[in-house]
């Protein structure tokens, strides 16, 4: 508590003395041009008393780059879609003249504003510091109570008490499988063997998921603190963070966080004066999806090909280098320090009977407010898509969500009143997964989507089990011919038969779940498959072989732009005359449609 | 930027040995060793595979097996800039195919190829985790999001002139 109070003072003094300007610089902010905004602000504020700082991702990725102005008295103003020019005007108007630029404001907190907060409906535990603190400053983390939980655990709790607390909280693994975190720790603690290891699985491989990246980039110390608590609980003195190499910024911030924590004595020998010692290493993944599976991940840390093995023995008995090991996901660790600080009761008051706490989702696809959201377990899919996500980003109707990436399933709009918890989702063929939630509107072809995922899984299959290695390839071939309009009458049954064998005869989760995207789209969108097979049409107008592009002569202005972009020279035309697409040359890439400013390209 | 640290010379035993010994020649460190060698040369030269095997005492086959198992390792030299086009789910829905098509038009290299002038190697990756900025791509270590077939050509032009970093 002392730390918290001191931290609070640091924040208040910053805010009381002079305003603070924060720029979101995690990957999404950088991708949207956040660095340019930061540089413009730095130049503008060079001689002023206003302090400028970088922060992580607050979750409103759809409006990046984001700039926050924190005024004395803790009034927060967040601006979206900021450009370097807009940033300068915000300084002029808001900071120098005291007039917030209303048109660009996304949210205001602390002065009774009438702007509805885009964060409404969310409950932020994992993301509690994201977008608030500077992820590269350990003092910032300490100032918001950071490393208070490990202090509490070491100072006043036994190892058993820590495990009991986590079991009581109801926390289940956030990587997808949903096993009780506390039980996992208990097994590892009770297992014979030494040394013991803690591993953080940060190999976020599901396409469409970016929760772990955001947490690592925005609040790396909370993950380190969660690992410290886990290590203390099971009696480990060494740990690894296995992070995707595709996340260079996350790796950089983790490395920095580890070295800062070592300097301050939160990592290393005799932590905080106790007899508990723990140190951490980072291992960068090398681009293999299967390494998200825990036994494959350990093979990879040992320097081998990442191929899963059968369980038992479970990692808790025989894990890394054959020693007892507990592997937990980034989001799980980020929950742990909150639970220890605030108590299990506070945590398990949130959520449903069997799914406690909150879940972070990466909302993406055709959704208006895409980004990172954290909601209490038990919220319905509809509420997440419409209340939190603002509905679809197009004027087309909401069609389905895909949850859990290549292992997960599609939930059609008519079932979107399903609650988001582990059991309700699996009862409709979907899974909680790691938290990817992809929103689709009527323009998405479900057969194409199934093909996309099967293409991914057959490529990422490690090759150990024949049903997975060969079966996913056969499924892909069938899906490919369906989308080409060459499907056979019995293809749907063939897909279902293959899916059944693959699920039953594969060793690891990759194979056991790989058919799910195909199975759920067949279950809920069978008529789309039939349209491709029997009528040779793609209802969503997506599958290249089944569609035709044409220029609408009455709309085309003859600007010639499309002729320059067409990769095959299929568009003929002279200036100010309507153009014509040569169907024989057209490869249906759709570039002309994307670049036409007058919407004169039609697809049918 | 990857290219800054890249030594453009032929692979030397001195460099390779130093990297292997930095990791105490542990067999368990094969992946970080390969990563560092790739950082130095932009790819993993075949001579390095033999050398790692010799020093660490594991077989050539095991090192080669590891190097070819993971998507990240390349056994061929790279162009000056590495373009990773994201083909994750969100980018797929947002038209990643069109972005790849547009890149091919601009630099003359398709996925898995290096442009004739040696400036760009184009790769396809599963997901960069920037789904809400889809479609996205990464040039060296810089991410560019919310691309259009037009804007991606501007980004590549800027990069070809030597302004690769900084959105």
Question: What does this entry show, briefly?
Answer:
The complex is a heterodimer of chains A (604) and B (167). Chain A is an alpha/beta fold and 604 residues long.
In angstroms, what is the radius of gyration of chain B? 17 Å
Query: How would you describe the shape of chain A?
Result: globular
E-strand count of chain A: 18
Low-confidence stretches of chain A: 1-13
Largest sheet of chain B: 4 strands, mixed
> Strand arrangement, largest sheet of chain B?
2-1-3-4
- Count of helix runs of chain B: 8
Rg of chain A, please? 26 Å
Provide the helix percentage of chain A: 40-55%
CATH architecture of the largest domain in chain B: 3-Layer(aba) Sandwich
The CATH topology of the largest domain in chain A corresponds to Rossmann fold
Might you state the CATH topology name of the largest domain in chain B? Glutaredoxin
The main sheet of chain A orders its strands as 2-1-3-4-5
Distance between the termini of chain B: 13 Å
Report the structural category of chain B: alpha+beta
Name the CATH superfamily assignment of the largest domain in chain B: Glutaredoxin
- Mean pLDDT across all amino acids of chain B: 87
Helix content of chain B: 40-55%
Strand segment tally of chain B: 4
How would you characterize this protein structure?
- The complex is a heterodimer of chains A (604) and B (167).
- Chain A is of the alpha/beta class and 604 residues long.
- Chain A has 5 domains: 7-109, Glutaredoxin (3-Layer(aba) Sandwich), CATH 3.40.30; 138-347, 3-Layer(aba) Sandwich (Rossmann fold), CATH 3.40.50.11540; 358-441, Ubiquitin-like (UB roll) (Roll), CATH 3.10.20.600; 446-535, NADH-ubiquinone oxidoreductase 51kDa subunit, iron-sulphur binding domain (de novo design (two linked rop proteins), Up-down Bundle), CATH 1.20.1440; 548-603, Alpha-Beta Plaits.
- Helices cover 40% and strands 15% of the residues of chain A.
- In chain A, a hairpin with a 7-residue loop joins strand 16 (571-572) and strand 17.
- Chain A starts with a helix and ends with a strand.
- With 167 residues, chain B is α+β, with helices and mostly antiparallel strands.
- Chain B has 8 helices and 4 strands, in the order αααααβααβββα.
- Chain B has helices spanning 2-5, 13-22, 30-41, 46-56, 60-69, 89-93, 96-107, 149-160; strands at residues 81-86, 120-125, 137-139, 142-144.
- Chain B has a 4-stranded mixed beta sheet with strand order 2-1-3-4, with helices on one face.
- In chain B, a hairpin with a 2-residue loop joins strand 3 and strand 4.
- The longest helix of chain B has 12 residues, at 30-41.
- Chain B is elongated and about 50 Å long.
- Classes of the chains: A alpha/beta (604), B alpha+beta (167).
- The interface between A and B is large, with 66 and 54 residues.
